Predict the structure.
Amino acid sequence: MNSMVWFRGRTDDYDHWGPGWGWDDVRPHFEAVEEQMRPAPLRDPHPLSTALGRVHGGPPTPEVVSSGPFIVNIENGQRRSPVDAFLRGTNVHVLKNCSVRKLMFTEGRVQGVQTGGGEQIKARAGVVLSAGTIGTPQILMQSGLGPAEMLQNAGIAVQRDIPGVGANLHDHPAVAVHHEGRGSGRGLTLGQLPLWVAAPFQWLASGRGPLASNTVEAGGFLAGKDGGAPRFQVHFVPTRIGFGKRAIGLGAGYYADVCLMQPRSRGRMTLGANGVVQIDPGLLSDPDDRVELREGLCALRALLRAAPFGPRSAPEVFPATGDDTVAVDAHIDARLGTAYHPVGTCAIGAVLGHDLAFHGIHGLWLADASVMPRITSANTNAPSIMIGHRAARLITQQLKAQ
């Protein structure tokens, strides 16, 4: 599940992905994907989301300082997923409620997969792993493909020592502020009771209204205090989100977070004793990331102060402290999170060839966000789908050449 926010990233993001993955290589795949996914501006953004666009002008793009409602893959008030765009109506057979435990291979060639229930599914041409930034390396490790010492400590027989599996884990580190006030954003209030009572019927009748919102309706891209290209992305939610033990509570408000678009820090995903997944995101392990995120939080507050919210403007209620280093660092330490964009644990170049073929195992390809050598400078939704589309073409070419 995701917020359906649609960004390709910056054109220069792909300069770091290696041969065959530059902007001119990936752009045709974005265009082909978008013909099927049909991303479009959110139809009924909240007035606060619309007002945010009047600070820098929209639509927001990571290429320049900008703000406003997002482009989303929503159609008629419902998520339009890759399943809708590419699978429905095809002859693809999907096994439901079935998890993959490990790969089966002999003499360097993949033979198929073994499910969690012990069933073996044979592969005629090969296997494409697309289980995500955590799931894909987990399956590889359970198959004996990964860092040898780690696998031995987890009690797994080593088939191939591949240090890059599970390494290079990174995400967009983020920190948020909360605003609350009567007459501001959406929330559970007596005055908004008619809105929420009517919302299900409005959505069923027209696919519109608050239930057609992706929640993360708007945002922007901000530069630091020295200007230049954007270094921070803002996600804006025109709804009260609690900062205590409960996310949903009484009151109206709005919420915004700021994330660092190109963090230097790297973490790792491993298997511990008995094969238990261990995830170390490594957030802010590079001290420069903390310095930048501190600057990003100040930029976020400046954006919210500049936004022409009018009578819908509400005060910051959390953390409601100043922009001095001590206060900002305390908030980061207490509330640091991510934008839920994990990538990189099976990176092109380290684990895969630039054709997405797995090093040393014939007939095995990977296609998900785990293959990104470096994260894109915005939401990873669209780039992950682009990778799938490009993978289909690359794998077809390789099979035809055999």
The CA atoms of residues 77 and 212 lie 4 Å apart. The longest helix spans residues 381-401. Residues 83-169+342-401 form a domain with the FAD/NAD(P)-binding domain fold (CATH 3.50.50.60). The chain has two domains: 44-69+173-260+284-335, 83-169+342-401.
